[in-house]
Amino acid sequence: MQMAATERLALAVALSAGAHFAVLAQVPLAPGLREVALFPAQALNARISPAPALPQIAEPLPAPQEPVAAPAQPAAPAPVAQAAGLPTAEIYFRGSDVDERALPLNEVNLVYPEQALVERRGGVVTLRLKIDHLGALRDVAVVEAHPAGVFENAAIEAVSALKFQAARRNGVPVGSLKTIEIPFDPDCMRNSTCVAGPQDKAAAR
Question: What domains sit in the chain, N to C, each tagged with a CATH number?
Answer without folding.
Answer: 1-41 (no CATH), 92-202 (3.30.2420.10)
